[in-house]
Amino acid sequence: MWHHLKAILKQDACLAYIINIVDMCINLGHWPNHFKQLSTVIIPKPNKLAYNNPKHFQPIVFLNILGKLIKKIIANRLQFHVVKNDFIHSSQLDGLKFKSTSDTRVALTHVIRSEWVKNRTTSILAFNIAQFFPSLNHHLFTLSLEKAGLDLKVTSFFANFLV
């Protein structure tokens, strides 16, 4: 559980071992299979009269907790690198550290008011791209990582990670 892992990570020696695992995964360009394994538990949704319909159940997916931690570390490193090197467009606000919905509101208000000054009307199209990443073109993604200036080891790691 997370609270067990947090207690372990308070010990410098344990934290150093986990950072070594992260570094080795990246240096070898390999994401171990045991971090890719998951367990699914099917839980019945409450207050259903009958459970003869698959929609009356909720699947819950459990990932390896150490793998989740390592993915968070790698995601933070990747985000730091691409933000530091101005690879992310300034209008990208979602999913970044130190950005919030308030930032989005301010940016959106600025765009709308700028158009009003020019006597123009504005409209907004919003959509959820959460399902975008399962259909991500892996080759294009690794090329984008190379363009972002990431080391070949890192791009190899992500190519292996996506398999």
Note down, in words, how this protein is organized.
By secondary structure, the protein is mostly helical. It has one domain. Helices cover 53% and strands 9% of the residues. It contains seven helices and two strands. The protein has a two-stranded antiparallel ribbon. The radius of gyration is 21 Å and the shape is extended. The mean pLDDT is 80.
Task: Describe the sheet with the most strands.
Answer: 2 strands, antiparallel
Order of helices and strands: HHHEEHHHH
Strand order, main sheet: write it out.
Answer: 1-2
Measured by DSSP, the beta-strand proportion falls in: 5-15%
Q: How many domains, as an integer?
A: 1
Number of helices: 7
Straight-line distance between termini: 26 Å
Topology:
Layout: H1 2-9, H2 12-28, H3 33-36, E1 38-44, E2 57-63, H4 65-84, H5 101-117, H6 138-147, H7 152-161
Antiparallel strand pairs: 1-2
Kindly summarize this structure in a few lines:
The protein has one domain (2-161). By secondary structure, it is mainly alpha-helical.
What are the main properties of this structure?
single chain; 163 residues; mainly alpha; two-stranded antiparallel ribbon; 7 helices; 9% strand; extended
